[in-house]
Amino acid sequence: SAPAIEVRGLRRVFRVRQGLFASPREVVAVDDVSFSVPAGSVLGVVGESGCGKSTLARLILGLLEPSAGDVLVDGQRLGGMDRRARARLIQPVFQDPFASLNPKRRIRDIVAMPLIAQGDVARADIDRRVGEALDRVGLSREQGTRFPAQLSGGQRQRVAIARALVLRPRIVVCDEPTSALDVSVQAQILNLLAELRRDLGLTYLFISHNLAVVEHIASEVAVMYLGRIVERSESERLFAAPRHPYTRALLASVLTPEPGLGVPDVGLGDTMPDPANIPPGCRFHPRCPVAIAKCSTEAPRPTADAAGLVECHLA
Ligand code: SF4
Ligand code: MG
Gene3D superfamilies this protein is in (predicted)? Predict the structure, then answer.
């Protein structure tokens, strides 16, 4: 059967102006990315802020147009797909549920929204399916009558998940779904997502800067650096035997976590990479502890084998 998600040569360029009189510059947020996600599995995407992972999520959700390349969802090209059909296939869960929930609406109406947007759904069906979605995420009918401000952060994220499930999609794109939550609540939401995937046969694209979170849920992991996937591998293998120097640095940074920060301490003692200023050669070379001469002039090509993919001259 077709993979749930297939991405081919995906590229997205933004034109940004960095000062009032500066001429616009091109920022390549996603640069020739290809991968596929088998149905029922979880691809974790990790990397620092600004690496392009949220842009990737928005391209796969059809919220952004690619500059080049294709996204196929369930074997169908996303470009040109009707919005309502797309919503039945793929749904998002974003980081900050408070920002994405209308404060003036009751929970049950928020969860009903994707169904109502489909048009032509009977009131009784809406009520029944909203009730089912609330059940699935562990919220009561009574909680469905409340407003977002009356719920905790974890409950609000359950609402966002119920809203994503109400159309019974096959694929859910989670972009930092637990990053705004307390650590104890994070585990509950992760366990809920894992359980829903098992019970409903869902496929996830799961984006996070937090490697521990990704390790918990992903079957395969892609590591992004300045718009490229620099390593991709089955999850257990990636954590046990990382092959790219950047992956190794990210894993080392997990040993010295900085709670509350959106950006991991990569342990290389420097600042964030700048997507508007991608270094020549290997884009990681200014921070790479094992760089060799040609790294500053020659971009490594991706090498794929049974263990996955890695993009490094030394691999
Ligand atoms: Fe480091 Fe060179 Fe490999 Fe890039 S290609 S990760 S600079 S060793
Ligand atoms: Mg982001």
Answer: P-loop containing nucleotide triphosphate hydrolases (3.40.50.300)
Six-digit token string for 53: 């992972």
Question: Which CATH architecture describes the domain 5-82+172-310?
Answer: 3-Layer(aba) Sandwich (3.40)
Dist. CA 299 → ligand 1 center (Å): 9
Q: List ligand 1's pocket residues with C-beta within 6 A.
A: 245, 282, 284-285, 288, 290-292, 295, 300, 312-314
Cα 73 to averaged position of ligand 2 atoms, centre (Å): 22
Closest ligand by atom to 56 CA: 2
Supply the ipTM of this predicted assembly: 0.96
Question: Residue ranges per domain, the chain?
Answer: 5-82+172-310
Instruction: State phi, psi for 70 to the nearest 5 degrees.
Output: -130, 150
pLDDT digits (tens, 9 = 90+) for 235-271: 999 999 999 999 999 888 754 444 444 444 455 555 6
Q: Tell me the residue length of the chain.
A: 315
